[in-house]
Every structure is written in C-alpha cells, then in structure tokens.
Design goal:
mainly alpha; 5 helices; about 0% strand
C-alpha cells in the first residue's frame, strides 16, 4: 500500500489515524520468510531424513520434532540486514 496515495486524498491527521489502525507486515525482497522455511526443510532432508526409512507417521513426526528441537536450541536467529532507519531512508528515496 502506498501511503503517499492516502495523503493525496485525505488530510494528514486523518491518514495518521487510519495508519494507526493498520498492521503492516513487510517481507524483505531478499531472504524472505519463505526462503528461510525452504532452507530449513532442505536442511532437514539433507541432514536427517536422507537415506532413512520410517515405519509409520508417528515415528517420523517424533524424529522430526527431535531434530527441530535440537536445531532450534543451537541455531542463531536470522540477521536481517535492512534495519528500520535504512528502510525509512530507502522509502524516502523511492
């Protein structure tokens, strides 16, 4: 959504009131949450599931849960390179 389009139609105070009611969820252009999920599934397949056979779904679910618990306890979070100040500066440049 382009906020400047709202400013063309409404007064600034009204736009700010509308914006306060909205929740924006920005997804970075590179390294988005979908890429992260794909990387996690790829790691699971390569590191843990490749070459293994499971007799039933319950055993598979338990094994995958154990793998994720181990990975989540040892891995660091995602380091997004674009911070809020950078995003605001980039927005003004557009």
């Amino acid at each position: 959504m382009r906020l400047d389009a709202l400013y063309e139609v409404f007064e600034p105070q009204r736009v700010r009131a509308y914006v306060k009611k909205l929740q924006f969820c920005y997804t970075p252009k590179h390294g988005s949450w979908l890429n992260i999920a794909e990387n996690e599934l790829s790691s699971l397949t390569r590191q843990y599931l490749k070459g293994r056979r499971f007799g039933d779904l319950a055993t598979l679910c338990e094994a995958v849960g154990d793998w994720f618990q181990d990975i989540n306890s040892t891995q660091k979070g995602v380091d997004w390179q674009l911070k809020i100040d950078g995003a605001r500066a980039k927005r003004k440049a557009v």
